[in-house]
Specification:
alpha/beta
């Protein structure tokens, strides 16, 4: 029994991420079992184990934990049926009763330096701004502003990370677009937001 446990752990760790029609920065990290489809991922962003991301633009320095589902297909809610067998294009049933035009894929946007906790669900078409934190297990169905902390099901605003003036300054500085050498030169200030802003605004 113990042997089976260790064998299953081994194969879980060896699970290969599936990446299709996506652009991923060389410094980004995609962990085991992740599925990435029609998505761009910026520098030094990472995607946790068994996370699924579809039709999403992800900025730089994002931390996305395991078990998240981001984006994906939507369905027509004001027709007689929501089933894809009435839509044009391919579907998993390989059956069509009609071929009505409907675009099921809305683009989802995640800014820079965003931290998304484990097992979050993020609805397609949502826009998440820079510096956001989303608590584990949250269900995000609305756009989120810069440097906001959201959590819950459905996710709601908990508080701002910093005061409005500091947030505005960080949005102007846009350190996530700096060169690696410039980031290295200012990295000693990253624990002191006020001093970082003062020296870079």
């Amino acid at each position: 029994m113990l042997l089976l446990y260790y064998i299953s752990k081994f194969f879980k760790k060896c699970s290969i991420p599936a990446i299709l029609d996506s652009k991923i920065a060389n410094s980004a990290k995609i962990n085991a079992g992740a599925n990435i489809v029609r998505t761009t991922i910026g520098k030094y962003s990472y995607i946790g184990n068994s996370t699924s991301i579809v039709n999403t633009q992800i900025g730089n320095f994002c931390s996305i934990a395991g078990g998240c589902i981001i984006g994906g297909a939507s369905h027509p809610i004001d027709w007689v049926s929501t089933s894809p067998v009435f839509l044009s294009g391919r579907n998993c049933m390989l059956k069509h009763f009609s071929s009505h035009q409907f675009n099921p894929y809305e683009n989802t946007t995640i800014g820079n330096d965003v931290w998304i906790g484990s097992n979050c669900l993020i609805k397609s078409g949502v826009s998440i701004s820079d510096g956001v934190i989303i608590g584990m297990g949250s269900v995000v169905t609305k756009n989120i502003g810069p440097y906001e902390i959201w959590a819950g099901n459905p996710a709601k605003l908990i508080r701002l990370r910093f005061d409005s003036e500091t947030i505005l300054s960080l949005m102007q500085i846009k350190w996530w677009n700096w060169s690696e050498s410039k980031i290295s030169n200012s990295a000693h200030l990253f624990t002191n937001v006020k001093q970082f802003v003062k020296e870079n605004i």
